[in-house]
Amino acid sequence: MSDYSSENIREIYERHFVTVYRVCFMYLRNVHDTEDAVHNTFMKLIEKQKCFESTEHEKAWLIRVSQNVCKNMLRANSRRCESPTGDIAVNDSSAVSDVMIELSALPDELKIPVYLFYCDGYNSKEIGSMLHISASAVRSRLQKARERLKEHLGSERSIV
Q1: Which of 21, 52, 82 is the last residue before a domain boundary?
Q2: Which of 43, 71, 102, 157 sits a CA distance of 20 to 30 A from 9?
Q3: What pLDDT digit, counting tens, does each position of 4-45 carry?
Q4: Per-residue b/e over 22-54, b at no fewer than 16 CB within 10 Å?
């Protein structure tokens, strides 16, 4: 993928904005920081466009870059959100809100595979490739995340 035109960059942005935004929000849990991270991710695309040789893996590349941008922002700010819910609207009677709150409280190593598997529809092999871990490690992390969610939410609720 050598030298993008502004039209190509616009197409990539439109195609992957939602995914990049979701990944960044999962890390930062703050709308303003998330918007900055999304901007920085796409700026990295422009800066590093020569690293790309094909569009085949552009989504995986953008996810990885967005994760790194968020981690760098967290390190630079040396703070985490005080509330595990961030900007998520909470309705105590809603099972979905409860699951989202508990999901956001999971460590990143469990949260990211859950998001990629259930929200973006990737399989364990694809997730493993993106995160540079084996497919069996992905399945193990998904199982651990389900167990933690079940433990925190109570076994009477069906989770995932």
Answers
A1: 82
A2: 71
A3: 678 888 899 999 999 999 999 888 888 899 999 999 999 998
A4: bbbbbbbbbeebbebbbebbbebbeeeeeebee
